[in-house]
Amino acid sequence: MQVTITGRGLDVSEQLKAHTEEQLERALRLLEKVVDVQVVFTSEKYRTAAEVIVRTKGLSFRAEEETTDAAAALDAALEKVEKQVRRHRERQKERGRERGSVRAVREAVLLAETPLAAEPRVVRTSSLEVKPMSVQEAVLQLTVTKDNFLVFRNAMTERVNVMYARKDGNFGLIEPES
User: Fold this and answer.
1) CATH code matching the domain that covers 132-174, chosen among 1.10.1900.20, 3.30.505.50, 3.40.50.2300, 3.40.50.300
2) Starting at the edge strand that comes first in sequence, how are the strands of the sheet with 60-67 ordered?
3) Could you give the angle at which helices 14-27 and 70-111 cross, rounded to 10 degrees?
4) CATH number of the 2-111 domain
5) What 8-state DSSP symbol labels residue 95?
6) Does the global pTM surpass 0.90?
7) pLDDT tens, N- to C-terminus, the chain (178 residues)
8) C-alpha to C-alpha distance for 35 and 26, rounded to whole angstroms
9) Which helix H or strand E contains 145, and what residues bound it?
């Protein structure tokens, strides 16, 4: 973790730097993977402000506080950052709980006898050319393709038939009646 302490309008003493680093360690114990921290002290006439920016992987927290003392301003700003961190962690926990409850609802829906899902719908439509061929040609055609079925016009009966591959390695033929 890289800590940058700067002063605008005032010199940052070694005592203030030590106090800042000590308070940062205490305040940031809740955070993991802190990339860098910037602390900027600003002094104008009778007020002193402390601005704290904490950057982690993917997040940043910022707080600013004004008082008459730099150390007090730093403490107040760090309290604000701690509050932001706690709020963020609570949100993360809630999201985890929500994900768990969503998972439980999905499992309940899958196990239920009457599912809540809508009726099945057609998600893909394709058109195919029905070619006239013999049953032997249909078997040959089905073996060379990776399809599980073939729709063709039977050359002997002039009717549309369906040839399908069975799990046992053989083929099935569906011939319509009438």
Assistant:
1) 3.30.505.50
2) 2-8, 34-44, 47-56, 60-67
3) 20
4) 3.30.160.100
5) H
6) no
7) 788 899 998 888 899 899 888 888 888 777 778 888 999 999 988 889 999 999 888 788 899 999 988 889 999 999 998 888 888 888 888 777 666 666 666 666 666 545 555 678 887 887 778 889 999 999 988 888 888 888 999 998 889 999 999 989 899 999 988 6
8) 16
9) none
